């Protein structure tokens, strides 16, 4: 047992070094200016840098839309799958796992082909304006559609784990016996018991959207990750400072998620005991 604990601490220490050493090197690079010593100018210049606010706001808007669409798509589907068609679970799992198999470069190549094909062949139909609206630079909804597909594996896993921990059939039947309709049973009974799973799925989707680069870059849009890359070509310290700051914000969101999830589980357990 002592040897096993030693190996665990050794693995934990190596994992900590693997993550913390590059982060520490990045922080030192941003604050150590040759000839000037330690300075925080790289961090103070972030907010005033051209494109920072607009790109971050665009990424947050894309993340909010992606979370809404993917949850509206997956939550009813997963609940219906568990209640009415459990034999289809392996099929849905395989379909939702396909984005992990398809390389992002191939995925975006297919999207580009469709976007180029549409205006050429549908220029005299009402669908032409749809293709134009999908590529609106102010809010490229085509990125939302792409991110929904890319988030499917993570959202599916989070919701599946949450549904496994809840007796959905009993909850729905109890709600139905009290006179609730299917939408009311889903919103008022099932969703409160999936709060932790919904938070996990939302956080994973948010992290994916904020860090995604390939699809947005190749389609010609500039959300936050693409802006960081473009700034890095001329202002290396600023680019690394933004990356460090975004990583810290992501960790803060993860800790917030863990706290909220722990409180929801505690409240649910207390209600069950009461």
Fold blueprint:
Layout (H helix, E strand, L loop, with lengths): L1 H30 E2 L3 E2 L2 H4 L7 H33 L4 H13 L2 H18 L5 H8 L6 H24 L3 H10 L4 H12 L1 H17 L2 H6 L4 H9 L3 H38 L1
Antiparallel strand pairs: 1-2
Helix pairs in contact: 1-13, 3-7, 3-10, 3-12, 4-7, 7-10, 8-9, 10-13, 12-13
Pfam families: BPD_transp_1
Protein name: ABC transporter permease subunit
Membrane topology: Multi-pass membrane protein
Write up what this structure looks like.
This protein is mainly alpha-helical and 274 residues long. Helix content is 81%, strand content 1%. The model has no long low-confidence stretch (mean pLDDT 81). It has 13 helices and two strands. It has a single domain (47-261), classed as MetI-like fold (Orthogonal Bundle), CATH 1.10.3720.10. The radius of gyration is 23 Å and the shape is globular. The longest helix has 38 residues, at 236-273. Helix 4 crosses helix 7 and helix 12 (224-232) runs antiparallel to helix 13 (236-273). The chain has a two-stranded antiparallel sheet. 23% of the residues are buried. The chain crosses the membrane at residues 62-83, 95-119, 139-159, 197-220, 240-260. Belongs to the binding-protein-dependent transport system permease family. Keywords: Cell inner membrane, Cell membrane, Membrane, Transmembrane, Transmembrane helix, Transport.
């Amino acid at each position: 047992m002592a040897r096993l604990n030693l190996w665990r601490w050794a693995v934990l220490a190596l994992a900590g070094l693997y993550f913390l050493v590059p982060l520490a090197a990045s922080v030192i690079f941003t604050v150590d200016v040759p000839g000037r010593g330690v300075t925080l100018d790289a961090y103070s210049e972030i907010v005033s840098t051209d494109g920072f606010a607009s790109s971050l706001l665009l990424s947050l808007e894309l993340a909010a839309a992606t979370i809404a669409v993917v949850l509206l798509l997956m939550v009813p589907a997963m609940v219906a799958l568990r209640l009415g068609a459990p034999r289809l679970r392996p099929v849905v799992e395989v379909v939702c796992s396909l984005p992990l198999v398809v390389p992002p470069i191939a995925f975006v190549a297919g999207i580009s082909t469709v976007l180029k094909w549409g205006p050429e062949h549908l220029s005299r139909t009402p669908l032409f304006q749809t293709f134009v609206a999908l590529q609106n630079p102010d809010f490229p909804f085509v990125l939302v559609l792409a991110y929904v597909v890319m988030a499917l594996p993570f959202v599916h896993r989070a919701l599946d784990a949450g549904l496994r921990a809840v007796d959905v059939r009993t909850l729905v039947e109890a709600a139905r016996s009290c006179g609730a309709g299917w939408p009311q049973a889903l919103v008022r009974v099932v969703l409160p018991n999936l709060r932790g799973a919904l938070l996990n799925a939302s956080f994973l989707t948010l992290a994916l959207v904020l860090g995604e680069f390939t699809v947005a870059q190749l389609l010609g849009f500039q959300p936050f990750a693409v802006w960081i890359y473009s700034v890095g070509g001329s202002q290396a310290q600023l680019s690394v400072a933004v990356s460090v700051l975004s990583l810290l914000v992501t960790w803060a969101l993860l800790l917030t998620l863990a706290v909220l999830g722990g409180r929801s589980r505690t409240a649910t357990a207390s209600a069950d005991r009461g």
